[in-house]
Amino acid sequence: MEIETATVARQYRLMEWADQIRDCQSRPNGMSVDEWCHTHAISKANYYYRLSQVRKACLDQMQKEPVHQSIVPVQMEQLKKETLSSDSSLEMNINGITLRITESTSDELLKKVLRVVADVK
């Protein structure tokens, strides 16, 4: 029971801190973090501590969420057409981005590019 209470208290505290951080980040132009902190009766060091804790909690939550990966279908006609071309390349359109892959494209580069393109919305 104690562990549950501590967890709920921490989550509540993080939500409050996240609200404060949003408030500070939307402060009026020309107002410094120091001024905002003074106005809200917290030290600058405490503000940055809270910011780091909220960021850490967000990262922890993101790591718990499953990463959705999808298989990109390639039409057989496209493969046949590309196989017949003289430069032996494959052109793919993924999320509005066109990739031209040749025999000289390294596997490592292709993996990196596909990971990035998969996240484009």
Order of helical and strand elements: HHHHEEH
SSE-based structural type: mainly alpha
Average pLDDT works out at 81
- The low-confidence runs, each spanning 5 or more residues with pLDDT under 50, are none
Task: Classify the helix fraction into a percent range.
Answer: 55-70%
Shape: elongated
**Quantity of strands, as a count:** 2
Per DSSP, the total helix count is 5
Radius of gyration based on Cα positions: 24 Å
Terminal-residue CA separation: 43 Å
The portion of residues forming beta strands comes to 5-15%
| Main sheet summary | 2 strands, antiparallel
Describe the strand arrangement of the main beta sheet, using strand numbers: 1-2
Which characteristics define this entry?
2 strands; two-stranded antiparallel ribbon; mainly alpha; 121 residues; 5 helices
Layout of helices and strands:
Elements: H1 2-25, H2 33-39, H3 44-64, H4 76-84, E1 89-94, E2 97-102, H5 107-118
Antiparallel strand pairs: 1-2
Helix pairs in contact: 1-3
